[in-house]
Write a structure and sequence with these properties.
Length: 178
């Protein structure tokens, strides 16, 4: 989007999008405190909405959007998205017996890779459908905006699954156990 639609160079695009990774790194230093303060279920629900909002905010970017605003949204969004992944990864091991940790680790890694791949594939399918319906193979800014908006709704829908978690889920891992 930044290169194709906004006309930025590859270097300019990377200089902006690195902020998402920087946000993820910053989050790693705060995750233990967040998990001690709040429970997994609470974090996954609230943070699911926050992640969806920041992901959806990307749909509002245009070539007129100040780069500092893009940088800020990507940095903050990267922080919250990483918090979501960290919580999901941590809770995956919450009630696993020591003898099953190796298998659980392998399974969790595969699920994480499949989930990421499916997200990229789903976004690509959305863009392909939009291009096909338009009868034009050129990427348009609306293609990206619509894809980001739809993916944002998908991210928000994850909250429905997180609401089903036991309020005490992962208490041993987060430090909330009695």
């Amino acid at each position: 989007m930044l290169q194709i639609d906004f006309g930025l160079t590859a270097f300019q695009s990377v200089s902006l999008t690195f902020a998402s990774s920087a946000g993820a790194v910053i989050m790693k230093f705060t995750a233990p405190r967040i998990l001690k303060r709040f429970r997994f279920r609470q974090i996954l629900i609230v943070n699911g909405f926050i992640s969806a909002v920041f992901f959806g905010a990307i749909a509002l970017f245009s070539e007129a959007t100040p780069h500092i605003l893009i940088l800020t949204v990507l940095l903050t969004g990267g922080f919250f998205r990483s918090l979501q992944f960290t919580c999901l990864n941590a809770i995956a091991y919450a009630e696993v017996e020591q003898s099953d940790l190796s298998r659980a680790s392998s399974f969790a890694s595969v699920v994480q890779q499949i989930s990421g791949s499916m997200g990229v594939a789903f976004a690509a399918i959305i863009i392909e459908i939009l291009q096909f319906n338009r009868g034009d193979l050129l990427l348009k800014s609306d293609d990206f905006r619509i894809a980001f908006a739809i993916i944002s709704l998908l991210v928000a829908s994850s909250v429905l699954f997180h609401r089903r978690l036991d309020p005490k889920a992962g208490a041993d891992v987060s430090g909330h156990s009695a």
